[in-house]
Description:
about 5% strand; about 90 residues; about 50% helix; mainly alpha
Amino acid sequence: xxxMGADSYFxxxxxxxxxxNAFLDTAxxxxxxxxxxxxxxxxxxxxxxxxxxxxxxxLYGGEGTLPADIMNTDxxxxxxxxxxxxxxxxxxxx
Length: 94
């Protein structure tokens, strides 16, 4: 689900919880975070998704989101590695 589902985040979160092959990506989060009601920060959004979905279901999408945005969250080093490269490597069998 591109952009973590943007304004459909909670619906996409539920879909990803239910289906093994559904994932969220982090592309363009800053833009959508500012448009959310209530507004959230990218940091809060990623931390929430990790808490309720797990980092194994989140793929790094670089369009508008920097690796530093992931690194500046209060999630574990292993969760950051999952988002930044482990999940994509596993999904794409790299």
